[in-house]
């Protein structure tokens, strides 16, 4: 884990960054075929960082063609496992060498606090790549029982061209989660980052060439979902899509598969995750500390965040008092200031969505700040379990407190939602 720098040092790195702006296809940066661009904005300041290539279906066709050519030529898919392993290890080392640059790039593009980018997201990105690199030569095929005149084997082969559609809340880490296993297995990948957070995916693609990953194996297409994600999901020569994002968009990718080549779809979608605390809980102070972390880390922009606290009525006040005490340490402000635990939300549109849930008379702490895109960690008491706040995924730093009388009522309330991603007891 790297040491944190000072606020001034991170600001200096930010001023010196040279941001990638074009799509990355067949080992080189390329403008979109239409020539169109879109602005990527630092949500903490509202300033335009760069104008990024706005790709469309023509760019998708081009990238898929190059990814398929690279796969069929076998420069990566048929490469000796030890050589694929070596390239992935080298990529992880290059990321480590550029860790402060990438951390700042991630922070200014997403609003995430630099303390998390530098000490959590980047180290875990590196670890993910290293783990899958080491797995390359340690996953064995199988031989099935058969008669003396037969040989039955199960052989693991790369699937082909894999689309990797990323969310904006963990741009680098989700990139690693998707490309690491796909590349380790010998596939070609086409990454579609969220339009709000394209920069670090482009920089990692650039580093992949330096690491020795052949041209056409690692491609990045920037742009809007309907312009890039949809044609990627519908493309007949894409063999698989891995998607992380909203439940609504996840459903679309299942439809894209059905309407095209029945490609394999892997989804991680939304959540409305309960944390149940009953009156037999020991070490209530420790419970309070964990609840604050689970609810507000990464500004609550986390699919597995605890967004509903379901607490037994006779311990609610004591628990909330302890939570408020822990929350005093959670400063909100400039993401490049390492003393801040929380930065800004990802963009103005999402900020407005989160704020729409704050029209409530039972806010204990938090609320909107005067600065755009900043929302303080907010706890709302006496929330109706059937209300919009308790049922919909807010994806922001808002915790709903729901009071129950018994264990059975707590379980019923926890299950009273369309989501089922995560839960804590």
From N to C, what is the helix and strand string?
HEEEEHHHHEEEHEHEHEHEEHEHHEEHEH
Biggest sheet descriptor = 5 strands, parallel
Largest sheet, order of strands side by side? 9-8-7-10-11
Number of strands: 16
What form results from the Cα inertia axes?
globular
Q: In percent terms, what proportion of residues is strand?
A: 15-25%
Tell me the radius of gyration. Answer: 23 Å
Second rung of CATH, namely the architecture of the largest domain: 3-Layer(aba) Sandwich
Number of domains: 2
User: Roughly how much helix do the residues carry, as a percent range?
Assistant: 40-55%
Measure the end-to-end span.
30 Å
Low-confidence stretches: none
CATH class designation of the largest domain: Alpha Beta
Keywords: Oxidoreductase
GO molecular function: oxidoreductase activity, acting on the aldehyde or oxo group of donors, NAD or NADP as acceptor
Domain Aldehyde dehydrogenase: 31-425
InterPro entries: Ald_DH/histidinol_DH, Ald_DH_C, Ald_DH_CS_CYS, Ald_DH_CS_GLU, Ald_DH_N, Aldehyde_DH_dom
């Amino acid at each position: 884990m790297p040491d944190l720098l000072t606020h001034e040092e991170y600001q200096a790195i930010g001023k010196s960054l040279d941001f990638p702006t074009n799509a990355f296809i067949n080992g080189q940066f390329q403008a979109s075929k239409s020539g169109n661009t879109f602005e990527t904005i630092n949500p903490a300041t509202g300033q335009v960082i760069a104008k990024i290539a706005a790709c469309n279906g023509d760019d998708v066709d081009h990238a898929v063609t190059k990814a398929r050519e690279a796969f069929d030529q076998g420069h990566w898919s048929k490469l000796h496992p030890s050589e694929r392993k070596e390239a992935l290890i080298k990529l992880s080392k290059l990321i480590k060498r550029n860790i402060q640059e990438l951390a700042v790039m991630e922070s200014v593009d997403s609003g995430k606090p630099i303390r998390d980018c530098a000490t959590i997201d980047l180290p875990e990105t590196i670890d993910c790549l290293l783990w899958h690199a080491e797995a390359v030569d340690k996953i064995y095929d199988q031989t099935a029982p058969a008669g003396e005149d037969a040989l039955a084997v199960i052989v693991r082969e790369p699937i082909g061209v894999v689309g990797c559609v990323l969310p904006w809340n963990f741009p680098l880490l989700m990139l690693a989660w998707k490309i690491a296993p796909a590349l380790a297995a010998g596939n070609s990948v086409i990454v579609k980052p969220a339009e709000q957070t394209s920069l670090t995916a482009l920089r990692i693609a650039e580093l992949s060439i330096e690491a020795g990953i052949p041209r056409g194996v690692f491609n990045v297409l920037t742009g809007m979902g309907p312009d890039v994600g949809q044609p990627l999901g519908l493309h007949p020569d894409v063999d698989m899509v891995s998607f992380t994002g909203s439940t609504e968009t996840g459903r679309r990718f299942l439809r894209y598969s059905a309407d095209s080549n029945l490609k394999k779809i892997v989804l991680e979608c939304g959540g409305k995750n309960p944390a149940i605390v009953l009156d037999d809980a020991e070490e209530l102070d420790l419970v309070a500390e964990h609840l604050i972390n689970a609810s507000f880390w990464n500004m609550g922009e986390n699919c597995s965040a605890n967004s509903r606290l379901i607490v037994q009525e006779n311990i609610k006040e004591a628990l909330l008092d302890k939570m408020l005490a822990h929350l005093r340490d959670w400063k909100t402000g400039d993401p490049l200031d390492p003393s801040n635990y929380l930065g800004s939300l990802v963009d103005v549109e999402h900020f407005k969505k989160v704020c729409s849930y704050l029209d409530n008379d039972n806010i204990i702490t938090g609320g909107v700040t005067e600065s755009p895109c900043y929302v303080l960690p907010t706890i709302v008491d006496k929330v109706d379990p059937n209300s919009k706040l308790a049922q919909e995924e807010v994806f922001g730093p808002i915790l709903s407190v729901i009071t129950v009388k018994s264990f059975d009522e707590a379980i019923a309330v926890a299950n009273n939602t369309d989501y089922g991603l995560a839960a804590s007891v």
